[in-house]
Amino acid sequence: MKLYTRTGDQGMTGVIGGRVKKDSVRVEAYGTVDELNAFVGQALVLLKTEEAKFHDMVQDLTEIQHELFDSGADLALVKAPEGYDLSYKINGDHVTKLEKLIDKYDGECPPIKRFILPGGSGPSAALHICRVVARRAERRVVTLAEMEPINEEIRRYLNRLSDLFFAMARASNVRTGVTDTEYKGGEEVFK
């Protein structure tokens, strides 16, 4: 099989159930989820260099990569072809799992009083990038949902996922002995 198909040369791409313009809101939404998945892969590379400290994060992020791929498939569904299993892959159980992971990683961190600047250790910086790309993916999915039907659980999933990346970024700083840098320009906002 060749990597190039030449079927997209006219600015169209295949989705599940048809073809759409490459700059459609749907393609932008699942494309941003795909971009997020690539950044998660980059974070995994950094975490694997110190696997003993981050074994659980590596396992959790690897599973999340599969779920992001499933999210992309759910978002690429325009019309179910005959014989296609119409059930969505991402559901409320995935959101609940993320909430438990948020609580776990947040429990490793000191209480937060001010906004935290992205950075610290290498793994933390990479996870903060994942956080902001997850937020952008969520915004793209919100826009798509205003125009076309989608799997509504993906919005919730991406929202919790960005929170998880924040908790993991802070926990990775704790595990590497790096203190979070608080934003100096504001007052204590978390009490």
UniProtKB/TrEMBL annotation:
Query: What is the species listed in this Swiss-Prot or TrEMBL entry?
Result: Collibacillus ludicampi
Q: Which family does it belong to?
A: Belongs to the Cob(I)alamin adenosyltransferase family.
One example of a Gene Ontology biological process annotation: cobalamin biosynthetic process
The UniProt GO MF terms for this protein read: ATP binding; corrinoid adenosyltransferase activity
What does the record note on quaternary structure?
A: Homotrimer.
Descriptive protein name? Corrinoid adenosyltransferase
The residues covered by the Cobalamin adenosyltransferase-like domain are 3-171
The record's top EC class is transferase
**One Pfam family name from the record?**
Cob_adeno_trans
* Encoding gene per record: yvqK
Q: Which reaction does it catalyse?
A: 2 cob(II)alamin + reduced [electron-transfer flavoprotein] + 2 ATP = 2 adenosylcob(III)alamin + 2 triphosphate + oxidized [electron-transfer flavoprotein] + 3 H(+); 2 cob(II)yrinate a,c diamide + reduced [electron-transfer flavoprotein] + 2 ATP = 2 adenosylcob(III)yrinate a,c-diamide + 2 triphosphate + oxidized [electron-transfer flavoprotein] + 3 H(+)
The pathway entry for this protein reads as: Cofactor biosynthesis; adenosylcobalamin biosynthesis; adenosylcobalamin from cob(II)yrinate a,c-diamide: step 2/7
**Organism domain of life:** Bacteria
Q: What is its EC number?
A: 2.5.1.17
- Would the keyword Transferase be found if you checked this record's keyword annotation? yes
> Which UniProt keyword terms apply here?
ATP-binding, Cobalamin biosynthesis, Nucleotide-binding, Transferase
